[in-house]
Amino acid sequence: MSQYSQYGRLQVARELDTFINEQALPDSGVSAAAFWQGAESLFAQFTDKNQALLARREQLQQAIDDYHRHGGETCGDTYQAFLRDIGYLTDKPEAFTIDTDNVDREIAHVAGPQLVVPINNARYALNAVNARWGSLYDALYGTDVISNDDGAEPGDSYNPVRGQKVITQAREYLDTLLPLATSSHVQSTGYHIESGKLSVSLANGDITKLADAEQWLGYRGDINAPTALVFAHNGLHLELQIDPESPVGKADPAGIKDVVLESAVTTIMDCEDSVAAVDAEDKTLVYSNWLGLMKGSLSVDVSKGGKTRTRRMQPDRQYAPSKHTMNQDDVTLPGRSLMFVRNVGHLMTNDAMLFDGEPVPEGIMDGLITALIGKHDILGNGQFKNSREGSIYIVKPKMHGPEEVAFTDALFSEIEKIIDVPANTIKMGIMDEERRTSVNLEACISEARKRVVFINTGFLDRTGDEIHTSMLAGPFADKASLKDRPWIKAYEQANVATGLRCGLSGRAQIGKGMWPIPDQMANMMEAKSGHPKAGANTAWVPSPTAATLHALHYHKIDVFKIQSSLDENYDGLNDILTIPLLEEPASLNDKAIQRELDNNVQGILGYVVRWVHQGIGCSKVPDINDVGLMEDRATLRISSQHIANWLAHDVVSEQQVRDTLTRMAKLVDEQNAGDPDYIPMTPDLDAAIGFQAACDLIFEGKAQPSGYTEPLLHQRRREMKKKLAG
Ligand SMILES: CC(=O)SCCNC(=O)CCNC(=O)[C@H](O)C(C)(C)COP(=O)(O)OP(=O)(O)OC[C@H]1O[C@@H](n2cnc3c(N)ncnc32)[C@H](O)[C@@H]1OP(=O)(O)O
Ligand SMILES: O=CC(=O)O
Ligand SMILES: [Mg+2]
Predict the structure, then answer these.
(1) Which of 220, 325, 377, 724 is the most exposed place for a label (fewest CB within 10 A)?
(2) Residue of the nearest CA to atom 18 in ligand 1?
(3) Residue that terminates a domain, selected from 548, 576, 604
(4) Is 200 helix (H, G, I), strand (E, B) or coil?
(5) Is-catalytic flag, 132?
(6) Is the C-beta atom of 460 inside 6 A of ligand 2?
(7) Close Cβ partners of 153 (under 8 Å, ≥ 6 residues apart)
(8) Is residue 128 in contact with ligand 1, taking CB distance under 6 Å?
(9) How far is CA 539 from CA 265, 419, 625, 638, 670, in A?
(10) CATH number at residue 148
């Protein structure tokens, strides 16, 4: 039980209070008195409104449930008229374009990957901020993008056969990124600076140059033997690293030791679905890591192969200018990914603070504290600069419709007053991941038109909400088929069209969702080229390696050109509002049903047991075919809602689900046997809090607000923490 400090009607758990007073407030230009007074009045002003928004969600859900109970249509005019009637569908605003100022180039003008990382994992978070630049050689060598054929297995030590494949493949990519006037990088034997110009010698003795000399920006090292050459292409940068003495460069005719790509242009430091943070202790860690990132002081010791190194944030990268940039000083490029912070949504409360004795809405607390911390970047208090334009970037997830966006906009305005920064300093990323937001997206953007910096199709939460909203309409298609139904394609396309119509191109990001299969990079290369092709100027990746590989797509595809050719008027509402139910319930035989159930239950247990027992909010969990899947609260929402839906419509029985849970608990324990920190569920499933959490998520899934998983996860994790503390 936390001890609290009292500030009028507000109480603050001691460890969070100490962190704010001793670390977050000093040098922020905000006095403790002003801050706490502001905090108290912020909760006074917004707590009831927050609760009213949640009550409105429930009211709409009940109306929708009643409609389906009475056999209402599941698509078409009657259905849409009903949704309009209850206020779920709202009127479109007058035509407008967004008006956001002071947006960094990385968001407004560069098309490139967006990395997401759980902020409470400092090791990963530092890796993420440094993932602005990534080794293409490592990304190719270490993944299935390079096949194992013909003796190219990765093995335990360096395999020169694989290495040669990497080099050839990288040079083929270079032909797209840096076309030569003649021939190919595959034939290059040297890169030289002569009379201020870059020349490339070829295996046949010829000398060539870049097709576009302006691509070369600068170099590092001796002008006669540069160690690095830096180039620009499609708004992104890349470095050729040359060292003929290095193990890789030695075997390369041009002495190239690596090709380093600008990769994670932006990163989302996640306080939400990839994080397990349930109390003051956890939230203080979340906020202190954010402060460390804003001040550039975060560090962590990383031990690998018997060596320990301290991981810190990387400095900017400097180069001597190429001839055409000679009139400039040195060329400096950002060394770190531009950071957003994803706050939690409007749903949860947290007892890290109490207002009038009740746990406060966690989203309000996140907004206030992450913005206060962000102010240190604006003041230049840190070792590095995050936003060169003086903005604080907050992603707001899981908002339902325009009134909830308006609430966040008003909240941010009030927070700006408390932390004493100009209006609209706090920018907003709007996750389009709830159905009521998708179908009213234009109105949502309009409510934040002075601060919106991205919209993003969070298709995972969106799928969970699709199921929960229409829980009583009938049994849903199996999970794989849900992705092939018209609703999702229409949702993705309408999101881009709406973003373009509202003037986001050149001012903000139109983003696409996560690649959730972290080890399948060859498949990612195939699938994720679809994102820039669809007009998205960013898309989520789960790891730095994935960022480096996905960056290649933005070199191949000029997103801004594509955006200018797309149909802005597409709205797709009919398809978006066609519920993806099982077309022929009888078409799924018993075997297929059990297989779907096994897969869902395995994913749920594999994720939930680590969340509840170990406090790990994002995991790679093997599916039934042993393919590791990224699981977070959003994927859990899908799996648990899917089973709840099949239970509600008798596609599966309660006993069948319980038997499956028991069988899969054993399997999940076996899968984790190699983890010394793992706390198994078997043999006593009744006493295993993680197992009970998984059962609750399924059997009480229908009654969960919007099908969200966090109320039950938080409750069970708190129980577990208490048990562990003895
Ligand atoms: C629906 C949504 O909301 S999606 C957004 C939420 N999801 C996420 O944020 C996913 C983030 N990704 C992750 O957490 C992880 O990549 C996982 C859980 C999917 C896989 O993790 P692991 O199995 O530990 O990864 P793996 O063993 O393949 O790689 C570990 C290495 O990669 C790094 N790494 C993995 N993911 C990331 C990341 N997102 N950012 C930075 N570094 C990362 C780690 O730092 C580690 O390197 P290190 O040893 O040098 O520190
Ligand atoms: O937050 C992302 C999602 O897909 O959900
Ligand atoms: Mg989400």
Answers:
(1) 724
(2) 619
(3) 576
(4) strand
(5) no
(6) yes
(7) 159, 162
(8) yes
(9) 11, 31, 26, 21, 35
(10) 2.170.170.11
- The angle at the Cα of 699, spanning 649 to 638, to the nearest 5 degrees, equals 75
- DSSP secondary structure of 530-577: HHHHTT-SEEEESSHHHHHHHHHHHHHS-HHHHHHHS-TT---HHHHT
* One domain for residues 285 and 392: yes
Identify whether 411 is part of a domain.
yes
Domain tally, the chain: 4
User: What pLDDT digit, counting tens, does each position of 661-688 carry?
Assistant: 999 999 999 999 999 999 999 999 999 9
pLDDT band, residue 583 (cuts 50/70/90): confident
Residue of 441, 490, 495, 434 whose CA lies nearest to 466: 434
- The verdict on the CB of residue 461 being under 6 Å from ligand 2 is yes
Question: Strands, DSSP E only, in 362-484?
Answer: 392-396, 426-432, 452-457
Residue 554's nearest CA partner among 111, 21, 246, 108 is: 111
Give dist(CA 605, CA 664) in Å, integer. 8
pLDDT at site 717: 98
Q: 52 and 30 share a domain?
A: no
Distance from Cα 404 to the centre of ligand 1, integer Å: 31
The answer to whether the CB of 640 falls within 8 A of the CB of 697 is yes
Question: Is ligand 1 within 6 A of the CB of residue 309?
Answer: no
- Full domain range(s) for residue 552: 45-82+99-132+266-299+333-576
Judge if 553 and 688 occupy the same domain.
no
Centre of ligand 1 from the C-alpha of residue 227, in Å: 31
DSSP-derived pairing of the beta strands 207-208 and 307-311:
unpaired
Query: CA 535 to CA 181: how far, in whole Å?
Result: 30
Bridge-based pairing of strands 114-118 and 266-270 is parallel
Residue 315 makes CB contacts below 8 A (sequence gap 6+) with 335, 384
Same domain, 698 and 613: yes
Kind plus residue range of the DSSP H or E element containing 620: strand 619-622
Q: How close is the Cα of 139 to the center of ligand 1, in Å?
A: 14
Q: Alpha-carbon distance 312 to 353, whole Å?
A: 31
For position 660, which CATH number holds?
1.20.1220.12
Last residue in a domain, options 535, 551, 576: 576
- What span, in angstroms and rounded, lies between the C-alpha atoms of 687 and 652? 25
Same domain, 166 and 18: no
Task: Answer whether 176's CB lies under 8 Å from 556's CB.
Answer: yes
Omega within 30 of 0 (cis) for the link into 683: yes
Residues 603 and 491 in one domain: no
Per-residue pLDDT of 308-360, as tens digits, reads 999 999 999 999 999 766 566 789 999 999 999 999 999 999 999 999 999 99
| 433 CA: nearest ligand 2 atom | 5
Our answer on whether the CB atom of 116 is closer than 6 Å to any ligand 2 atom is no
Atom of ligand 2 nearest to the CA of 460: 4
Q: Whose CA is nearest to atom 3 of ligand 2?
A: 458
Instruction: Kindly give, in sequence order, each residue whose CB lies less than 8 Å from that of residue 25, ignoring residues fewer than 6 positions away.
Output: 31, 32, 35, 372
Concerning whether 632 is annotated as a catalytic residue, the answer is yes
The reported pTM is 0.98
Question: How would you label 353-373 residue by residue, b for 16+ Cβ within 10 Å and e otherwise?
Answer: bbbeeeebbbbbbbbbbbbbb
Asked if residue 366 is part of any domain, the answer here is: yes
Structure-derived torsion over alpha carbons of residues 415, 418, 424, 429, reported in degrees to the nearest 10: -30
Choose the catalytic residue: 342, 501, 507, 716: 342
Distance CA 497, CA 243 (A): 47
CA 434 to centroid of ligand 2, rounded, Å: 10
